[in-house]
């Protein structure tokens, strides 16, 4: 079991290059990856996403990559040809207008400094691409170590709560038998008071009606289903695939059964236990929101 919360940072340095990669992960319904990185890394964004997708299946992932150094920059001399054409054209106009002699030479044109300029372009070489991918992978692995540690704590907490629910469900099952008898006795007492002055010809039918009324308050089916859900919950926690959504669904089903028991119950002790169990189930649901 993995938590969806984690953080990883990794650095790479050599004589010409420095790379810093950070990855933050928080809970999210799906896998959502966003990058903050230099524009020249955009051509390999899908490859960087694949590195994360191979390691993480669910969560909101924010990745920041910073690169500095001369290794990522290339200087390139650029000529403003449109400006050169204008210079030459104007020089020819000067010659014609003032009847000047001489040729327009290279030395003359090169005196105009604004026709040349140096551009510094950022680009990614094969080596830089490899360094970036390896650095990101290490950052992801570092975050996964944190997610694994927190996942173990989440599993431990959920396991304790499922065991608490099992213990309480067992007590509810034992109390159920007493409650049914008490409920039947109360029903009979009320009927007898009502029929004190009335003769009933068919006692068996009367007792059958009493049994049916008592069954309406029987919670045995709900207890059985909750036990089944808890066992399934514990089994799913041992799976290696992401289990968060499955666990969330099962807790919803447990809550549904607890609500049914609460509506059926006419026993104070059972009602108090249901309040406690619903509180435990709610805490489980909150914890599961962080499970991948």
Automatic annotation (TrEMBL):
NCBIfam families: YicC/YloC family endoribonuclease. Its cofactor is a divalent metal cation. GO terms for molecular function: hydrolase activity; RNA endonuclease activity. Belongs to the YicC/YloC family. The keyword Nuclease applies. The keyword Endoplasmic reticulum does not apply. Pfam families: YicC-like_C, YicC-like_N. Keywords: Endonuclease, Hydrolase, Nuclease. Residues 176-292 form the Endoribonuclease YicC-like C-terminal domain. It comes from Gracilibacillus orientalis. This is TIGR00255 family protein. Residues 1-155 form the Endoribonuclease YicC-like N-terminal domain.
């Amino acid at each position: 079991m993995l938590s969806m919360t984690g953080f990883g940072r990794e650095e790479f340095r050599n004589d010409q290059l420095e790379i810093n990669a950070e990855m933050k992960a928080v809970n999210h319904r799906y896998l959502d990856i966003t990058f903050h990185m230099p524009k020249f890394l955009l051509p390999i964004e899908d490859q960087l996403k694949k590195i994360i997708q191979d390691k993480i299946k669910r969560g909101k992932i924010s990745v920041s990559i910073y690169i500095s150094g001369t290794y990522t920059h290339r200087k390139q001399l650029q000529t403003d040809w449109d400006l050169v054409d204008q210079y030459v054209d104007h020089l020819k106009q000067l010659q014609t207008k003032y009847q000047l002699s001489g040729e327009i030479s290279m030395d003359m044109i090169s005196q105009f400094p604004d026709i040349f300029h140096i551009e510094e372009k950022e680009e990614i070489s094969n080596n830089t691409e490899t360094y970036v991918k390896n650095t990101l992978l290490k950052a992801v692995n570092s975050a996964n170590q944190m997610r694994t540690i927190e996942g173990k704590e989440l599993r431990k907490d959920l396991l304790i709560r499922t065991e608490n629910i099992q213990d309480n469900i067992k007590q509810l099952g034992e109390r159920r038998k007493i409650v049914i008898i008490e409920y039947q006795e109360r029903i009979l007492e009320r009927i007898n008071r009502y029929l004190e002055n009335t003769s009933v010809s068919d006692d068996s039918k009367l007792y059958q009606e009493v049994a049916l009324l008592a069954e309406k308050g029987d919670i045995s089916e709900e207890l059985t289903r909750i036990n089944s859900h808890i066992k399934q919950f514990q089994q799913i926690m041992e799976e290696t695939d992401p289990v968060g959504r499955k666990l969330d669904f099962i807790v919803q089903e447990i809550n549904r059964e607890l609500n049914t028991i609460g509506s059926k119950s006419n026993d104070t002790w059972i009602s108090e236990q249901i309040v406690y169990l619903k509180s435990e189930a709610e805490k489980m649901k909150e914890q599961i929101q962080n499970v991948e």
